[in-house]
Amino acid sequence: MPNTSNAYDFDHFAPKPAEPVEAPEQGKRKKEQKQNVTQLSEAELRRSHRHNAHAARTFLSLTAVLFVVLIIGAVVFGQVQLTELTEQIHAAEQALSEEKSLSVQLDMQANSNMNTDQIAEYARDQLGMEKITDSQTTYISLSQGDNGTVLQNNDGAGFLSAIWNAILSVFS
After folding, report:
1. Dihedral sign, CA of 111, 117, 120, 126?
2. Which of 2, 26, 37, 168 has a beta carbon 3.0–4.6 Å from 22's, enabling a disulfide?
3. How does DSSP assign 48-71, residue by residue?
4. Do residues 81 and 89 lie in contact, with contact meaning Cβ atoms separated by under 8 Å?
5. Contact 129, 123 (CB under 8 A)
6. CA 69 to CA 28: how far, in whole Å?
7. Rounded distance between C-alpha atoms, residue 74 and residue 69, angstroms
8. Cα 89 to chain center, whole Å?
9. pTM value?
């Protein structure tokens, strides 16, 4: 394997040997080989200068990339909203369980403070209430039956109101 370090390559400093003189045919052939110029016809030249095809392809590529970025952004945004809503639901459930626990505690405390006999005595002595008797009950009989009357005329609601009510009836 030759030394690949150019810093220690002393061959660059050695004198170069003279190139052998070649026959005129070989020199001409080498010049032809060294020329890499290709001649294009007029149609090929016009086709190679068409920038609109490249611009359209670039525009379509950028549109596709933008579309993919928008979809990814929408998914990320949806996931962020889902996470926030999940956290709110968790906080609400925790608050509900705390309130239920407090309600149970207060019910137990209220039940331990007064029983039904004490409540009835308090209502009778302090508030002047009494238990219901048959003399407090009044019975009403209707000989004709029930009749209903419309108190509000709803004929002037309008066409738009009817459409709105139809839309609401679909969703309910």
Report:
1. negative
2. 26
3. HT-HHHHHHHHHHHHHHHHHHHHH
4. no
5. yes
6. 58
7. 9
8. 18
9. 0.35
Residue that has been written with the tokens 């999940």 in this structure: 86
Q: How far apart are the first and last CA of the chain?
A: 86
Q: Please tell me whether residue 118 adopts helix, strand or coil conformation.
A: helix
Rounded-to-integer distance, Cα 15 and Cα 4, Å: 20
68-125: pLDDT as tens digits: 999 999 999 999 999 999 999 999 999 999 999 999 999 888 877 777 888 888 899 9
33 and 39 in contact (C-beta within 8 Å)? no
**Residues 95, 98, 102, 103, CA torsion sign:** positive
Asked whether the beta carbons of 13 and 7 are under 8 A apart, the reply is no
Domain range annotation of the chain: 40-129
